[in-house]
Structures are given as C-alpha cells and as structure tokens.
Amino acid sequence: MLFYKKLLIPDFKAMNIFVAFNLLFIFFGHSAMCQCDCPLHDGDFEEDQKAYINRSKWIREGSAGIDFKAGTSFRGYNNAWVKADKGWNAIRRAVLLSQEYTYVLEVFIKTSENVRDGYFGFWDAQQHPVSEIKFGQSSVYRKLTVKFKPPKTGRYYIFAGVWAPAQPAWIKVDDFSMTCPCPDVNAIPVDN
C-alpha cells in the first residue's frame, strides 16, 4: 500500500535525482538507438484462419501448414509446421527492408529428434540466403536470432525450413518477430 501512496504523492527529491541521472546519461552515456517492432503482422500465426500457409501471407515450400488450437504452439493457440520426408520444406514471407538499418529477426522453433539441417533467416528476392543460421534437434521450443543489414532497399524473405534427413522429420515454428532501429527517437542534446 505504501508503494501506491508514493505514486499518488510524488517524492520530489527522488524525482529530481531521477531527472538528473537521466540528463547525465544523455550527455555522457554511450550512444544507443531504440529498437522498434517492424511491420511483421501475424508472426505468431494467430490472425490466419486458413489451415494452409499458401492461402495466407506466408508461403509454403513443400509440406507445410498451420496448426490451429492443437496445443503445440509456443505461445497463443496456433503455430506453423513444416514436415519433411524428402528434399527442402519451409515457410517464408516477403518483407520490405531498408538498406540503412540492421534488422534482428527472432523465432521459436522445436523439432523432431532427427532434424540436423534446419535453417532460419533472410533470403534475397531471388531466394538466395543472405543471413541465416543452422539449427538441429530441439525437443522444446528455443529462440533463434539472426541479424541482417541489407546491401540495398527492397524485397527480402524471412524463412524457416528443413532438409529431410532421409526419413520423416518436422519442425514447429512460432512467434516470428523482427525489430529494427527507430530513427525518430534518437536523443540529440540541444544547446539552450
């Protein structure tokens, strides 16, 4: 209850210390840029109402789809799946990226025990890998992260997929998110 009262009746001494600390940080602290969410809608597959990825903004390559309320998602009700019994199988989605920013892409993935050649990251417009990481078996969802600074502004793809290991394999994919710098929130000190 005491904490609640402090919020209603501010302690001006504490507030002055807080303001002074923040001013010192702005003038003498390291320069940092805020990270913002980029426009990547339905990275968690909760908005999609179609069981097949190729009917949504997500594109499937090989055998892929969306699990609806199957109890297999990392968070929420839905997740994407990719099943592989031969060749390359994946999900991908087009995104527009600017060459002046570095993007951070994250996803949560879990796999069957025989996955050895899973890949996640960015492709260029011709679907060539430009920034990717390899992943293997994971019986629980784990977060994967990749960074990418495009050499030119344009269309790229984000993706997650797997090469079949000569027997049936699967990956579950959930909560794609992408962050990029917020150019309009840089703190620039001004002389008065």
Layout of strands and helices, then pairs:
Layout lengths: L1 H7 L3 H17 L6 E3 L21 E3 L1 E5 L11 E6 L3 E10 L5 E9 L6 E6 L5 E7 L6 E7 L5 E10 L5 E13 L11
Antiparallel strand pairs: 1-11, 2-5, 3-4, 4-11, 5-10, 6-9, 6-11, 7-8, 7-10
Q: Tell me which CATH architecture of the largest domain applies here.
A: Sandwich
Uncertain ranges: 1-12, 14-34, 185-192
Q: What's the oligomerization state?
A: single chain
- Secondary-structure-based class equals mainly beta
**CA-to-CA gap between the ends?**
41 Å
CATH superfamily of the largest domain: Galactose-binding domain-like
CA radius of gyration: 22 Å
Total strands: the figure is: 11
* Main pleated-sheet profile: 6 strands, antiparallel
Question: What fraction of residues sit in β-strands?
Answer: 35-45%
Number of domains: 2
Secondary-structure element sequence? Answer: HHEEEEEEEEEEE
Residue-averaged pLDDT = 75
Could you please say which CATH topology of the largest domain applies here? Jelly Rolls
| CA-based shape | globular
* Number of continuous helical runs: 2
Helical residue percent band: 10-25%
CATH C-level class of the largest domain: Mainly Beta
Write a structural description.
- It is a single chain.
- This protein has two helices and eleven strands, in the order H-H-E-E-E-E-E-E-E-E-E-E-E.
- It is mainly beta and about 190 residues long.
- The protein folds into two domains: about 1-30; about 35-180, Galactose-binding domain-like (Jelly Rolls, Sandwich), CATH 2.60.120.
- The strands form two sheets. Strands 1, 3, 4, 6, 9 and 11 form a six-stranded antiparallel beta sheet that branches. A five-stranded antiparallel beta sheet has the order 2-5-10-7-8, with no helix packed on it.
- Strand 7 and strand 8 (about 130-135) form a beta hairpin.
- The radius of gyration is 22 Å and the shape is globular.
